[in-house]
Write a structure and sequence with these properties.
mainly alpha, single chain
């Protein structure tokens, strides 16, 4: 067996770089995925309801302030 070179091949680098391409996910899709994950992790229904309500209020706040509710445009300043 050959020793590792600790260097990535061109194919390995291209695989890593293609994985870095971020899909643009809208807020509602992200919320749905998050809620699905909460259910998979078997969180209490009350906890899931709380998360859904809080994130829905956050979504409405963004819309009222004319901030696009896209995961790409939300910054720390919008949250804090």
């Amino acid at each position: 067996m050959a020793r590792r070179t600790n260097e990535l091949s061109i194919d390995e680098l291209s695989l890593i770089n293609s994985a870095k391409l971020v899909k643009h996910t809208d807020f509602k899709t992200a919320l749905s995925l998050f809620i699905d994950d909460c259910q998979i992790r078997n969180l209490r229904p009350q906890t899931i309801k709380y998360y859904r309500n809080e994130l829905s209020v956050f979504y409405k706040m963004l819309k009222e302030q004319n901030i696009p509710p896209s995961l790409d445009t939300i910054t720390n300043e919008n949250i804090g």
